[in-house]
Structures are given as C-alpha cells and as structure tokens.
Amino acid sequence: RKEVEQDPGPFNVPEGATVAFNCTYSNSASQSFFWYRQDCRKEPKLLMSVYSSGNEDGRFTAQLNRASQYISLLIRDSKLSDSATYLCVVNIHQAGTALIFGKGTTLSVSS
Amino acid sequence: ETGVTQTPRHLVMGMTNKKSLKCEQHLGHNAMYWYKQSAKKPLELMFVYNFKEQTENNSVPSRFSPECPNSSHLFLHLHTLQPEDSALYLCASSQDTTQVYEAFFGQGTRLTVV
Q1: Nearest to A43 among B31, B45, B105 (CB)
Q2: Tens-level pLDDT at each residue, chain B (114 residues)
Q3: Residue B8, preceding peptide bond in cis (omega within 30° of 0)
Q4: Cβ contacts (< 8 Å) between A4 and chain B: which residues?
Q5: pLDDT digits (tens, 9 = 90+) for A8-23
Q6: In terms of CB atoms within 10 Å, which of A36, A103, B12, B82 comes out highest?
Q7: Contacts of A96 in chain B (CB under 8 A)
Q8: Do B107 and A42 touch (CB under 8 A)?
Q9: Residue of B nearest to A86 (CA)
C-alpha cells in the first residue's frame, strides 16, 4: 500500500465551482499533515498545514480525520489561478526522516 | 527571490558523463534534502542531511553520490547515469529533520540522460 494516496485527477471545473480533494495515508504514526501546491514545471510550495480541528484559509479549508487516516482539501469559488497540482504531504517526525509526498491531484479551472 | 537556489536549471548528459548538481540555501536551516520527481510518480526522497550528517539514504543507486560540505550547501554528483534517471531533481531545506513543519524547495534541475 502506498504511503500517501491521492486521486490524480484531473479535476476540470468551471470558475466559481467548489472542488474537494481527498488523501489517505498508511502510517498511523504520521503526526503532521500539509497540502502543497505545485504549478506546472515549478517547485512545490506550502499551501497550508492541516490541523486536527480543521482549518480554513480564505477559500481553502483543510480537514484531518486521524481515525480514518484521511485528509481533505476544499476549494470554494475556484479561480483560474487555482489551476495546479495539489500534493498531500505527511511527516512522521522521526529524526532523519522527511516529508512524504503523494502523487498529487491536478486541478484545471476554466472560464 | 527564492531562499533555495539550484544550479543548473537544465542539464543534458550522456551516460558516460560525470556532472554535479548544486543546491544552496540562505534560510539558516540545518536540514537539506534531495528529491527526485519523475512523470506520474510522487516526489521520491533520495537523501537527507541534518547538521551536515547524512541521516537517510533511501536505497538510491551508487551512481548518485551526495555531498554536504556545510549546512548551506548540498551537491549531488552524477556518474554513469541511465536514461530512466531523467527527471526533475529538487533540493529542499527545513529547520531540521525532527520538526519539519515546512520544507522550502529550490526550482529544481531538469535532467535528461541521453
């Protein structure tokens, strides 16, 4: 079983749509969770951390369900500029380890 | 602009060549990483350095050889690569490896092996 699994998409949505991405992780020792964004031919950049209580940043809402080992990202009122690949990332916080990335979910927002 | 700088941005090399990728971070971080990103695959962690010490070698073939002379610089030495090694190689840094809340990436080196 892959460590971090995501539906690769692509998700093709019109401007203004609401879209949700899901992610599951296999290691129950995972302690930190993130969504990164990667634009075409660019490096990944942190979009937001994911907290147990759920957190919101403008049009973006992230949720974590530890029991189900499941993370989600909701984007409301999609903009053209939201078109990118969204990477689900976990960290088990052991010395010498690093962030574990999912394959990413591709979003394309059209006018 | 970016706190993590990688050179070169693009590299084409033959299978018998030797080349090196360079990464430099200006963020005062103590951990640096090499990741490989191939088409339709997740980012694969290759090497981890924490306080200049290699703490992880993720079963990477010996034709890839990392070097970390100090906490700000990281190299990836390449020799006798195969065409399947063509990929985007990304360097990243974080404060250290035990509390990785955010990793900052360089723009990557797009490597083509011919």
Answers
A1: B105
A2: 569 999 999 999 999 899 999 999 999 999 999 999 998 788 898 999 988 888 877 789 999 999 999 999 999 999 999 999 999 999 999 887 776 678 899 999 999 999
A3: yes
A4: 42
A5: 889 999 999 999 999 9
A6: A36
A7: 48, 50, 55-56, 97
A8: yes
A9: B42
Asked if A103 has any chain B CB less than 8 Å from its own CB, the reply is yes
At residue B5, φ and ψ (nearest 5 deg) are -115, 130
| Exposure string for A31-70, b = 16+ CB within 10 A, e = fewer | ebbbbbbbeeeebbbbbbbbeeeeeeeeebbbbbeeeebe
DSSP code string of A40-94: TTS-EEEEEEE-TT-EEETTEEEEEETTTTEEEEEE-S--GGG-EEEEEEEE---
B99 has a chain A CB within 8 A of its CB: yes
Token digits of residue A26: 């296999």
Residue A100 touches partner B, C-beta closer than 8 Å: yes
Q: Chain B: give the shortest CA distance to residue A6, in Å.
A: 10
